[in-house]
Amino acid sequence: MEGKIIVITSGKGGVGKTTATSSIGAALALEGKRVAIVDMDIGLRNLDVVMGLENRIVFNIVDVVNERCKISQAAIRDRRIENLFLIPASQSDNKDVLTTAGVERTCKQLRKEFDYIIMDSPAGIEKGFENSIVGANEAIVVCTPDVSAVRDADRVIGLLYSRSLTPKLVVNRIEPQRVERGEMLSHEDVMEVLSIDLMGLVPMDEQVLISSNTGKPLVLQNDSKAGQAFKRIARRLNGEADLPIEVPAHKTSVWSKISQTFKLK
After folding, report:
1. What is the mean pLDDT of residues 251-262?
2. Using 50, 70 and 90 to split pLDDT, how confident is the model at 194?
3. Is the confidence at residue 222, as pLDDT, over 90?
4. In this model, does residue 259 exceed pLDDT 70?
5. Please, are residues 65 and 113 in contact by the beta-carbon 8 Å criterion?
6. How would you list the strands of the sheet with 168-174, edge to edge?
7. What is the pTM of this model?
8. Domain-wise residue ranges, the chain
9. Sign of the alpha-carbon dihedral angle for 61, 64, 67, 73
10. Average pLDDT of the segment spanning 117-138
């Protein structure tokens, strides 16, 4: 049975797409699946740093697509999770160095070697986006609950539909307190605008920054609410479609509840 390619994309940068890619890939590997995370952001390259693998790069996805090396030579095994591999992007090339035909050929090869291939698409709708989706079976759009991110995500969703991909939504960096105060869109607001199925809700979590700086997978941190949310997303991707989606909630202290009840200040 051939593996499945899932592209993770967004309308704009800065919404946590790279964190989502690394976390979902790691969580699928923890489920016992053989997973390759492919960084398609040619010229920038961030996944290697987030995963703590920046010092082990020899070949990259450009070398694979242009047949300068084999997949096995470019794929770097994660230090903590046995079934997880990274194929990094090139920092010295630009997006035009890859052809759609070359990427499609590489995708066919990747399907034979891995259960899941997670493509980290560059933000936006240019050449890098086209290359990232050419071999995809599924698509996930990462969006934060703010107006500009939702607007840009809507554009990407339209393009995915035009390529016969039915995207699913991950709403990232939810802050329940701000939602309650009306300072942030709720996930219902985001879903109403984008009108696609919800795959998961991820709360704002300071552990994300720590994970990125240390290279320790977020899903290995049991005290990380975001990490646990990404684990549930991976389980849904892996067949547990009926797994309930947990809505991030603000925990109110006992004193706050008493104050609210008796209208104390």
Report:
1. 51
2. very high
3. no
4. no
5. no
6. 76-77, 84-87, 35-39, 116-120, 4-9, 138-143, 168-174, 198-203
7. 0.90
8. 4-261
9. positive
10. 90
Specify the length of the chain in residues. 265
16-55 pLDDT per residue, tens: 999 999 999 999 999 999 999 999 998 888 899 999 999 9
What's 4-261's CATH class? alpha beta
Which tokens sit at 139? 């698509």
Query: Residue 169's beta-bridge partner residues?
Result: 141, 198
Which residues, in sequence order, are CB contacts of 6 under 8 Å at separation 6+? 24, 116, 117, 118, 119, 136, 137, 138, 139, 140, 237
How many angstroms separate the Cα of 60 from the Cα of each of 41, 56, 70, 171, 193? 11, 11, 10, 30, 38
Buried b vs exposed e over 98-116: b needs ≥16 C-beta within 10 Å?
A: beeebbebbbeebbebbbb
